[in-house]
Design a protein that fits this description.
The chain has about 100 residues and is mostly loops. Helices cover about 10% and strands about 0% of the residues.
Length: about 100
């Protein structure tokens, strides 16, 4: 099997050449353009100039009514007890003689 069996004919050299083989005539003055009236009546709004607010963006998911928030209990990294953290730990520090 050839590698070209897996590639679309769209990406071939022959297709590229046939795409650009036609003659492209230059456009004349803007005054001589024939623009349909429905296109002339279309108004485009300028892009929004609002800056993104600083900080981390909010979660896009809004919890439904009755859905409970999952809370994670604090665990001390010093004594590994649950309910407090290292800063508020009151347990004595055990130093092993190694």
């Amino acid at each position: 099997m050839s590698c070209y069996d897996y590639i679309s004919k769209y990406y071939t050299r022959d297709n590229w050449l046939s795409t650009w083989s036609g003659v492209m005539h230059p456009m004349c003055d803007v005054e001589s353009w024939s623009v349909p009236p429905d296109v002339l009546n279309v108004r485009c709004k300028p892009p929004s100039c609002q800056k993104r607010p600083p900080g981390r963006p909010k979660k896009s998911r809004i919890p439904s009514i009755g859905e409970h928030r999952r809370t994670k209990r604090q665990k001390c990294s010093r004594c590994h007890a649950i309910g407090h953290n290292k800063k508020t730990c009151r347990n004595p520090l055990h130093i092993s003689n190694a």
